[in-house]
Design brief:
Length: 557
């Protein structure tokens, strides 16, 4: 076996000088693969091979969760106990059969190992509510507690018992990868028992046995690597059937120009294209397919209004003046609605997104399962804006006026365009309305945002579960609470109701109510969503499916 793998790697490395073979994918990226330890990998070019080699219980198919190594799930009425039926006849790349014991070990290991910057740390924080292995956590987080939370039952099903309902559970489990227990234990990894439990808590596993010789259940298995290449081949025993492309080479090429040239010459099938200007030059090139309008995943671009700005240079609450603004200017709903009506989404899409953006109707990511397409976003209308401002602050704001400082981040065309649109339309509406645009460095802007010092902020937020997005943006307990100053008891109740319901079918109508309320209150509004781009060889088929799943097995020639 080792001889055949070595021969394959040499043959593939040598093949790069010519056009790519029909059964081989050459994917040129901008950075080398660092670690394929599934509990550790978070960087883009580490996650890509990890997702080909390993699999989780579910697949995040662009916001829809489909069974992978699980075939189904049942939950208790309170959502705290989830039971997973596992797929049969699944093999690891070393030929051993996957059992419930492997799945049990994999979840437990993910909740044990990994530094605070690892994927494992993020997942145990999400699933178990453990932000870090502090001294206090180490006293209470025992092997017995973990074993009770993750176990196999007598029927060979995996049972996960949590202390709360976790709506984002499937998203988390799509990132917990199943590994072969016996191979890891034999290689000196965690035994899976209480014996060395404490020694592996938070342990750095970037150079584990899996990092050196990855073994999973995925459609592709590891062949070889060097500083500039990572090579995979199709796993003949894959439960889902053999992928069309038998060999995959992830090739590091630092130069943007060199990658683009390789695509044009037929020496690469997919390359990382640095910007839309470069992409435009590839349109119409023989042998190249350009994708200009691919949807983005789990991201939402929004404008937020701060109702309690922490800036001593501004006026005290409720005090109006043409040359300044009160710290609580946006506590008046008519001010928020007026600003939203002044925003020209068409101009933003043209100038900030080069025409490649999709209008959104809520501040959820456009592919989110809870998004409601029947709701309507604020429409650009100077007439509506004037009507709202004439009502603001008991009718006083229109006659008194204001001056609002709006910052944009140096190097960020998005925030610069947002600032320009507001300045043009606000000052056009009323000669007593003024905007002072300031340029700040990104680090300073982020500090000002989180410190609650910005009246208006344009930012990108993310999350697979709607609660992650909406609670982060609007809750008084969320990370952005200082940036918004929102204190809305009804909103908090709606957030809790939607989050605590069990199952998407029960939660979706609650999110409709919540999103309707948010559109009415206008604590923030959605910006058009940027579309992503890509370029591939014209012989490559299925790139849209790959974009949705990140699975190379969806590709063919």
């Amino acid at each position: 076996m080792m001889r055949s793998l070595l021969s394959l790697s040499v043959a593939l490395m040598g093949s790069l000088a010519a056009a790519t073979p029909r059964d081989t994918l050459v994917y040129q990226v901008a950075a080398a693969v660092a670690s394929v330890e599934p509990a550790q990998a978070v960087a883009t070019y580490d996650v890509l091979p990890v997702q080909q080699i390993y699999e989780g219980l579910y697949l995040n198919n662009f916001g829809t969760y489909t069974p992978l190594l699980a075939t189904g799930m049942t939950q208790s009425k309170d959502g705290k106990v989830s039971t997973f039926t596992l797929r049969k006849n699944v093999k690891f790349h070393d030929g051993t059969a996957m059992t419930c014991a492997d799945v049990e070990y994999s979840l437990r290991r993910t909740f044990v190992v990994g530094t605070e910057t690892s994927l494992a740390a993020q997942l145990r924080s999400t699933v178990l509510g453990i932000p870090g292995f502090t001294a206090d956590v180490r006293k209470t987080y025992t092997f017995a507690k973990l074993a009770a939370a993750v176990r196999c039952n007598a029927a060979g099903q995996l049972v996960l018992t949590l202390d709360r309902n976790l709506p984002s559970l499937l998203d988390a489990l799509s990132q917990v990868y199943v590994v072969p227990r016996k191979a890891l234990v034999a290689g000196g990894d965690w035994s899976g028992t209480a014996r060395d439990f404490a020694a592996f808590l938070g342990k750095d596993v970037a150079n584990s046995v899996l990092a050196q010789k990855p073994v999973g259940t995925g459609a592709y298995q590891f062949v070889a690597r060097d500083p500039n290449r990572f090579i995979l081949k199709a796993f003949p025993g894959y439960w889902g059937g053999a992928p069309a492309l038998k060999n995959v080479i992830l090739q590091k090429v630092d130069s943007d120009t060199a990658r683009v040239l390789a695509l044009q010459k037929g020496d690469a099938d997919i390359v990382i294209v640095p910007d839309r200007d470069t992409l435009a030059k590839l349109k119409g090139v023989a042998g190249v397919t350009v994708y200009e309008s691919l949807p983005s995943r789990d991201l939402s671009t929004v404008v937020l209004f701060n109702q309690n700005v922490k800036n001593s240079a501004l006026l005290p609450a409720g005090q109006l003046a043409e040359n300044n603004m009160p710290v609580n200017l946006f506590s008046d709903i008519h001010v928020r609605r007026g600003f939203a009506a002044l925003f020209d989404a068409q101009t933003f899409t043209r100038d900030a997104l080069q025409g490649f953006g999709v209008t959104k109707n809520t501040t959820l990511p456009p592919n989110n399962w809870a998004d409601d397409k029947t709701l309507r976003p604020p429409a650009y209308s100077l007439k509506t804006a004037e009507a709202e401002f004439r009502q603001a602050w008991g009718g006083k704001l229109w006659s008194t006026g204001f001056t609002i400082p709006i910052d944009f981040f140096a190097g960020s065309g998005l925030s610069e365009v947002v600032s320009g649109i507001f300045k043009q339309n606000i000052e056009r509406l009323n000669p007593k309305f003024h905007v002072q645009v300031n340029t700040v460095e990104l680090s300073a802007a982020n500090a000002a945002l989180l410190g609650g010092k910005l009246p208006v902020a344009a930012l990108t937020w993310g999350g697979a579960d709607p609660d992650t997005v909406l609670r982060g943006l609007y809750s008084a307990q969320g990370i952005l609470a200082p940036a918004t100053g929102i204190r809305d008891a009804k909103l908090e109740t709606l957030l809790d109701q939607a989050n605590n319901a069990v199952g998407q079918s029960a939660r979706k109508p609650l999110y409709r109510t919540l999103l309707t309320y948010l559109n009415q209150q206008m604590y923030g509004f959605p910006l058009p969503q940027p579309l992503t781009w890509a370029a591939t060889a014209s012989t490559l088929k299925g790139y849209q499916n790959f974009h949705r799943t990140n699975l190379l097995r969806t590709l063919s020639k």
